[in-house]
Amino acid sequence: MPKGSEELTNARKEEIINACASLYETMGFKDVTIRDIGARTSFTRTSIYNYFQTKEEIFLALLEREHEAWIADLKELMRQDSMLSAEKFSDRLARTLEKRGCMLKLMSMNLYDMEVSSRLENLVSFKKTYADALQTVSCCLERFFPAMSEEDIQHFLYAFFPFLFGVYPYTSHTEKQLEAMKLAHVDYTEYSIYELTRSFIARMLSTSGGAE
């Protein structure tokens, strides 16, 4: 780790993650390189290795930051409202995920690569944040649907979080994919992340005691 204050270290890590996020908006995970990321920072490319050993660690840090932002939105949801119907909760929760396209894309397409090529301490840090996300969603359910039992909440979580790992490919397609589906005569209806997620949450609440 380079010499300097903790603030400088955190600022440089954030700069690296920001560069990675910017590149990921227009480039694929496999196409982004450490060189590309370094070219967008204010310090030398080799300095990146003082903070991250692989590009996968950088992407994993980006995914962790995305989860932290989502958790913050969930906590704000609980601060703003003391009561929500199942319909309104489905809407509000889906809205928090509508902003997290980067998070959902990484989860559905690149999670294995990130985890297998990251050091254990980096992976543990991410897993702790992921656990916080699970806990925060659980707290939302406890707050807005007190009739839900612990078993009901676990049933919801075990369906909802796996759903998040697959929603992105159903809502985001390249022109090539769309053309292939057309030529293959695939019966396809376009939905947004918000639309699919809101519908799924509402159905889950109706079968988990949340719509009572």
Topology order in helix (H) and strand (E) letters: HHHHHHHHHHH
* Helix/strand/pairing category: mainly alpha
Rg computed from alpha carbons, rounded to a whole number of angstroms: 19 Å
Beginning-to-end CA distance, first to last residue: 54 Å
Number of DSSP helices?
11
Q: Architecture of the largest domain, CATH level 2?
A: Orthogonal Bundle
What overall geometry do the principal axes of the alpha carbons give? globular
The overall number of domains is 2
- Beta content: under 5%
Number of strands: 0
Helix content: 55-70%
How do the strands and helices of this protein lay out in sequence?
Blueprint: H1 6-24, H2 34-39, H3 55-80, H4 86-98, H5 101-109, H6 111-116, H7 120-144, H8 150-164, H9 167-171, H10 175-183, H11 193-207
Helix pairs in contact: 1-3, 3-4, 3-5, 3-7, 4-11, 7-8, 8-11
